[in-house]
Amino acid sequence: MESSEFEVAANGVLSLSVRKGGNIPWWWYLDIKGQPLYQIGNSCGTCQAIFDRVRNANMPMTPCQLSEQLEAGLGTIGQDVLETVSALLPRGKYRAELLTVTPSLVTGQDCPQEISCGADYFWLCNLTTSQKTAEYEIILPIVDRLKLGRERIDFYKSEFQKGGHPTALSFSMYDERAIRGEYLQNAFVHFLLDGHHKVMAASEMSHEISMLSFLALDPYTAARS
Predict the structure, then answer these.
(1) What digits encode the pLDDT tens for the residues 3-40?
(2) Reduced to 3 states, what is the DSSP secondary structure of residue 109?
(3) What is the sign, positive or negative, of the torsion defined by CA atoms of 195, 220, 46, 23?
(4) In terms of DSSP H, where are the helices of 18-73?
(5) How far is CA 15 from the centre of its chain?
(6) CB atoms within 10 A of CB 142
(7) CA–CA separation, 142 and 35 (whole Å)
(8) Where are the domains of the chain?
(9) Are strands 133-140 and 183-194 parallel, antiparallel or unpaired?
């Protein structure tokens, strides 16, 4: 697994913020162009993880200069890719990694009770539970499912069948929360910046897909600074 650590000095299209709940700064958001995209949870760090999709969020297109490299698939993380994606990210420290995941589509009404997620749909990659813990890895979309084109999904299914290895792109973070006292949720969350059709195609085939993940190493600090 290739990885690279670096720091982003200023917010890009994406940012992290804490907004008021009542009269105090309480709710933690992932913003896109200054508008809330996902309500991640509250800022105490010990309450229920929410990852709730904020309705009516403005969602931009992803950088077109990356599309050809991502469609062909990445074997290494080039400096040009790092510099392009860095311009989108919230300020903070990151680890860029090429991961391999096998996504499974989950709709809101079918969300496992061990997962706290208010998104209309998402992809589950891993779920491990015990009497007192739930550890999971999920991919959260920024594009409405109804806007995904069947023709493009089938294109990527064909690419997988031919042995292709297209790469998705995500802003990622770990979130650890205490639920109902001693019950713990450890979530590894990927906010999908590019590759909705690729990931949907992989989920329909139960096929693995590579993902270029930019993992935020200090998201709480970035949200409050």
Answers:
(1) 788 899 889 889 988 887 666 556 888 898 888 888 88
(2) helix
(3) negative
(4) 67-72
(5) 13
(6) 21
(7) 13
(8) 3-11+60-224
(9) parallel
CB 176 within 8 A of CB 217: no
Which residues, in sequence order, are CB contacts of 12 under 8 Å at separation 6+? 86, 87, 88, 89, 90
pTM: predicted TM-score of the whole model, two decimal places: 0.86
- Per the prediction, the chain carries an average pLDDT of 84
> CB atoms < 10 A from the CB of 182, how many?
9
What's the rounded Cα separation, in Å, for the pair 167 and 8?
23
Q: Are 223 and 28 in contact (CB under 8 A)?
A: yes
Q: Which residue's entry shows tokens 């998705």? A: 168
Strands laid side by side in the 35-42 sheet: 14-21, 24-32, 35-42, 52-53
Residue 5 tokens read as 């650590």
